[in-house]
Write a structure and sequence with these properties.
Blueprint lengths: L2 E2 L13 E5 L4 H11 L3 E6 L22 H5 L4 E5 L5 H11 L4 E4 L13 H7 L4 E6 L14 H7 L2 H4 L14 H24 L4 E5 H7 L2 H10 L16 E5 L4 E5 L3 H10 L9 H4 L1 H6 L1 H12 L4 H10 L3 E4 L3 H5 L2 H5 L3 E5 L5 E5 L23 H7 L5 H9 L4
Parallel strand pairs: 1-11, 2-3, 2-5, 3-4, 5-6, 6-7
Antiparallel strand pairs: 8-9, 9-10, 11-12
Helix pairs in contact: 1-7, 7-8
């Protein structure tokens, strides 16, 4: 069962900080949802009538609401305020809100916000303590800076598609938008770093996050392999480029992942499953040799792995402390007893009156845990609360802005 959130207490370590959120779609909202989960007050600025593009990324819709599952998944702990930033009055509202904000996050194309007087160079003169985070496809500089950035494009240009897929098959992107997600998380890291700098100096700064940059940064061992050899790594399907056996195997009734991380583990595997003879074969004796002869390793172990069911293998391998696991569907994931025990699914009250299920924040803090104060807002839900409560506007003034289409 999902963990039911009933208390709106803000326990997060960023409590007291206010974020002006000019992001939309996924990379930026991932960053600002993390800040919100960690306690910051996040004011999400959306286009009047239309809102964030992802409100229309449906079906599926969250049951009993008009909200897309996509939008609800990355916009909790935010207050939705609609503002036409292309209008002079809308820009004035943004500037007024910034007087009480610590952070501005945006993912407009390079230079787009400067047209409205909301670029970093313009705002830093008025608000020297402001931390301004820009998340774009290619960063603020370089020959590709003006280009729009999309997750699949970045996965293609950043190399991950050349590494993903079966040997000899076509390039594949990851099944979730990892380029967007990493950019958002790196943006959050940058903001937290800039906050510490501001604590020490009183000065804000500009954080320039390019999706392609972050993608190159998380190429990890594959990137290091290339930099060390100058050779393009091949696609290996579900095999590991530096360890063997570390891959999926067919079982009697399905598939499982077997991850033999070192030579002692391989020795333990062989001695317990009738494969002692392999230990005397130099092609299997060490991990470098097994990697060099990976196809032989796969062909040799496949008949053995087919001799037991997935459940039988997992029971026996876990008893030997050999890493293994089933290849789960999402239904399996969200019913997994460990995922449930870790409270990774939440059920929250939504403004529609429905209850919505969302995945939880994975950061476990012992003293200042993430807090789940509100589900993703409906469009413009907090117009009056923010404009009257923070800016001190009257009900009539808010109504007049609405009549003019400013909010």
């Amino acid at each position: 069962m999902p963990d039911t959130v009933t208390a709106p207490e803000n326990t997060g370590p960023l409590k007291g900080l206010r974020v002006l959120d000019l992001t939309r779609v996924l990379a930026g909202p991932t960053c600002t949802q993390m800040l919100g989960d960690l306690g910051a007050e996040v004011i999400k600025i959306e286009r009047p009538e239309a809102g964030d593009d992802t409100r229309g990324f449906a079906p599926p819709f969250v049951p009993n609401t008009r909200e897309s599952a996509y939008f609800v998944g990355v916009n909790r702990n935010k207050k939705s305020v609609t503002v036409d930033i292309a209008s002079a009055q809308g820009q004035a509202l943004i500037l007024k809100l910034l007087e009480s904000c610590d952070i501005l996050a945006e993912n407009f194309k390079v230079g787009a916000l400067a047209k409205y007087g909301l670029g970093y160079e313009q705002l830093s003169k008025k608000f020297p303590r402001l931390i301004y985070c820009s998340i774009t496809g290619f960063g603020q500089t370089g020959p590709y800076a003006p280009r729009p950035g999309y997750d699949a494009l970045i996965q293609a240009m950043g190399g991950i598609m050349s590494l993903t897929g079966e040997p000899g098959g076509s390039p594949q992107k990851a099944g979730v938008p990892v380029a967007d997600l990493f950019a958002g998380l790196y943006g959050c890291i940058g903001i937290l770093s800039a906050l510490n700098h501001r604590h020490a100096t009183g000065q804000g700064q500009h954080i320039d996050i390019g999706m392609l940059d972050t993608h190159v940064a998380w190429l990890a061992n594959q990137g290091s392999n290339f930099l060390s050899t100058g050779e393009n790594p091949p696609r290996l399907g579900n095999q590991h480029p530096n360890i063997a056996p570390y891959q999926e195997f067919p079982s009697k009734d399905g598939y499982l992942i077997l991850a033999v991380g070192n030579d002692p583990t391989f020795e333990r595997f062989c001695k317990n499953f009738g494969q002692e003879h392999l230990l005397a074969d130099e092609r299997f004796a060490t991990n470098p040799k097994r990697v060099e002869n990976r196809q032989l390793v796969t062909d040799t172990l496949t008949p053995l792995m087919k001799s037991k069911t997935t459940a039988e293998w997992i029971k026996e391998l876990e008893a030997l402390k050999i890493a293994c696991g089933p290849i789960n569907t999402l239904k399996d994931v969200f019913s997994d007893p460990h995922v449930i025990a870790r409270n990774m699914v939440l059920e929250m009250d939504h403004a529609s009156g429905a209850r919505v299920k969302v995945t939880a924040n994975p950061v476990k803090l012992s003293a200042t845990p993430p807090s789940y104060r509100s589900a993703a807002p409906v469009l413009g839900q907090h117009n009056a609360e923010v404009l009257q409560g923070i800016l001190g506007m009257s009900e009539a003034e808010v109504a007049a802005l609405k009549d003019k289409g400013i909010i």
